[in-house]
Each structure stands twice: as structure tokens, then as C-alpha cells.
Amino acid sequence: xxxxxxxxxxxxxxxxxxxxxxxxxxxxxxxxxxxxxxxxxxxxxxxxxxxxxxxxxxxxxxxxxxxxxxxxxxxxxxxxxxxxxxxxxxxxxxxxxxxxxxxxxxxxxxxxxxxxxxxxxxxxxxxxxxxxxxxxxxxxxxxxxxxxxxxxxxxxxxxxxxxxxxxxxxxxxxxxxxxxxxxxxxxxxxxxxxxxxxxxxxxxxxxxxxxxxxxxxxxxxxxxxxxxxxxxxxxxxxxxxxxxxxxxxxxxx
Length: 253
Description:
It is a single chain. It is built from 12 helices and 5 strands. With 253 residues, the protein is of the alpha/beta class. The protein has a single domain (2-244), classed as Rossmann fold (3-Layer(aba) Sandwich), CATH 3.40.50. The chain has a 5-stranded parallel sheet, with helices on both faces. The protein is globular, with a radius of gyration of 18 Å. It starts with a helix and ends in a 9-residue tail after the last helix.
């Protein structure tokens, strides 16, 4: 793990910029508050539980894999269908126009993520032909760093913090990991003592996260690697448009 971290130190300098980069078609400077307000505005009162030509779409990602970035792209770029977006997971007995986004796992119990029984129901809907699953993932060590920062600040301040808000420079993050490497390793190993004072299950270990990712990659309708959006966001977003069968008129930036 120590050697992997040394390699990651260089990788994270490139990956960290993703959290600060502008969206595919959004104006630069859009904040998390802006995204939340927009989601509420365009989705208010729209619940579609009837049959139609659409399939229910589930945007699924493990904790710390870039799901919110994908949420924002979808909210800003799929026109009328965005009214049916919900940040949360709900099950339906048939196809709908709804778009649900959330954390869900397939094998282990984990803090902050929907239980395996929920994911099994989603996959049953997919296999029955009335739902699609879009799985978002990223470099597993990058997710590990993201989750470690979030949960250690949550335990300390009762509010989790993303990497770009917690550290001004990537070197500051790397230095903090080096100073607290034993805690970082305990988190990577899923040590339940790290959150003994908090109710609920422990967070996934690094190995469990890798296993969960592999299971999702095998099962999903479409898999999307967050780093690929850094290379060609238009190409990657076009895959989402195709699976969801939404008709959007846009030009690549």
C-alpha cells in the first residue's frame, strides 16, 4: 500500500483537478448550492409511475466515485427529462421516466450506501427490461483518498468535506496522508473502531470497494469511468444520451 500511495501522489495531482473543472455545458463557477437549487426547481412535483416509452434510469456509484458530477451533467443537458430526476433511490414495478441517483452496494453492508437487497431489486428491473443502470466509477485509490477525507471530517465536524474544499493544494493532501498514514491504513482496512461512536455499519474497506466495483461493472447497462470525462466529456456524455434515448440538441464545447 505504501508503494501504491507513492504512485498515487502523482496521479492525484491530475485527478484532483476534475473536482474543480467546469461542467460539460454549464457556466463556470457553478456551485454545489446552485446544483441543489436547480435540481429542486426542475424536478418539483414530477413523479411518473405510469407506463411509457422510457425506462427508469438508475445512476449508481459507490461512495466517492464522482456520481454528483454525472448528476450535474444530466440535470443541465437532457432537457424535459431532467424534471424526473431525484437524488435518491426508489423502486417501481414497471418502466417510468424517473431518473434516480444514489449509492448502492451488491455484497457488503456499508455506511452511507443502500443495502444489497435494494440493488438486487434494481438489477431485477434491469433484467426485466424496464430499467437501465448507469454505474459510475473511478480509480479505486482516488476514491479511497476521497472517502478518507470525507469520513474523517464527518467524524470530527459532523459534516463531511470534499478534497477540493479541505485542501488548497494537492501537496497539502499528500502531506496530511503521510502524517496520518496509520489512520489512513486503518480506514483502508475497514477498521470499525474509526467510527465506533457513530451508529450504523462501518465503511467499506479498500478491498471490499474493489470487489463491489467489479460486481457492478459486470452487471450495469452502461459503465462510465470518471477519468474518461477529463479526456473527452462530450464522447462520454453521448453514451448516457444514447442509453437513456433522450433527444438533446447540443454542440461540443
